[in-house]
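Thread: quick sanity check before group meeting

JM: Hey all, I'm pulling together slides for Thursday and realized we never actually wrote out the predicted structure for the chain we discussed last week. Dropping the sequence here so it's in one place. If anyone has concerns about the input, flag it before I start.
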Amino acid sequence: MRGGRAGRAIATGALLATLATPGVGRAQDRPPDVVVIVTDDQRADTLWAMPVVQARLVGRGVRLDEGFVVNPICCPSRASILTGTYSHTTGVYRQSPPFGRFEWFRDASTLATWLDAAGYTTGLVGKYLDGYQHAALTGYVPPGWDRWVAFVHAAYHDYKLTVDGAIRAFGTAPEDHSTRVLAAEATAFVRAAEGPLFLYFAPAAPHGPATPLAEDMDAFSDLPPWRPPSFDEVDVSDKPQWVRALPRLSASQRSAIDTMRQNQYRSLLALDRAVGEILTALRETGRLHDTLIVYTSDNGIAWGEHRWAKKEAPYEEVIRVPIVGRWDAGGLAAASSSDELALNIDIAPTIVEATGIRAPRMEGRSLLPVLRGQVPADWRRDFLIEHLSGSNPVPTYCAVRSDRWLYVRYTDGEEELYDVRADPYELENLARDPSASGTVRSMAGRLDALCDPRPPGYLDDGLDRRILFAVGALAALVGLAAVRTRRAVTKASG
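JM (edit): ok, ran it. Output follows.
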């Protein structure tokens, strides 16, 4: 329960009684601490620019080289991280209602509530979910969080934080840079927490405009422009209509992409130092050895590949994310890597297994066997990606990504098939290639099995769009009423 400390010892004792398999070589007198770091729009191929993360996470833990999200956009991905479930279970498919945003998220059952009920001191520092702004201004703090330092709206300067329900404003001074402020809040939480802790650290970096600290403004000045074969793709005749409709990038757009990429790298430097400060606080409080640390991002982002410079698309640059795990007492091989498919919906099950807490059914799987190099024979060989169209032109789709293939079917019936081993830049769509017809049939069958239930209004589900809109509008009203109700309950319960 939020803010409560009474009964912590009793709750912790109950937790210890329910622990499943203790971590290899770790002390068993209390459960492990947990730190989850969720960056914003960080591509998987950017970790090289973060020396602290490289030395103290990658160098002391396991890098999962095949890390992906199951819905490549901020709000749905964060909902999946907190619950271990897909958008078709959370109800959060996109950034705006209906079927998206904070109002659609059922926050009564998350990692925070499960860990809090088990005796953990829980803290969120940074970004929660898109659309939380109004709720933040009314003083609403989601259940399960003992310490709540959340963006009203994520930014680097001129932003507000809600600190346990009270609003604090920040300006444009160097010391107000949000990465620096949030790092201080996170380390203070670590140093003050009682008993086992759960820290969810979610800074704004490297999301656009990716404003770096003043001391990092000249970093990466010699970074060459990003020009892979898929950049501003010349021939998109085999791509779906939404890509064919994109014009070639102009000179100003290319320049903007180059600047944005450079600033993303620059903004990661402050974040890298923040990670170091958190690790130092864990070490100085005697927690680091038995802390499970997971580092990831909510989605990647395109840097001009296929003429695209946003997210939501099913392409590699967007669906791939960094996933790194470190747990010194947990039997993880230091400085190792894995090429098993790992998903953002696996983070919650991993924490549940590591801590032994009780949790509802999840759709992800614990990554602990993978992190320990003990991959089960039945580990996944493919997974579902789902997306509901929003403000950007990417149509609703379901996709299946295996260890070799990406198959996408859009709501208008258009298909894409890429051999990501032979064609990592996804230049040749094989969906209409007669030689790939067998693979298309196989992947389509797999998609039909996995994409169930389908995103609202997807493909041939028989729902007229006007009926769908009416249902969505009604559901939005119900969702808003539910938010008001849960705020009232939280306020009444103190």
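AS: nice. Residues 386-463 form a domain with the Arylsulfatase, C-terminal domain fold (CATH 3.30.1120.10). The longest helix spans residues 251-284.
JM: adding both to the slides.
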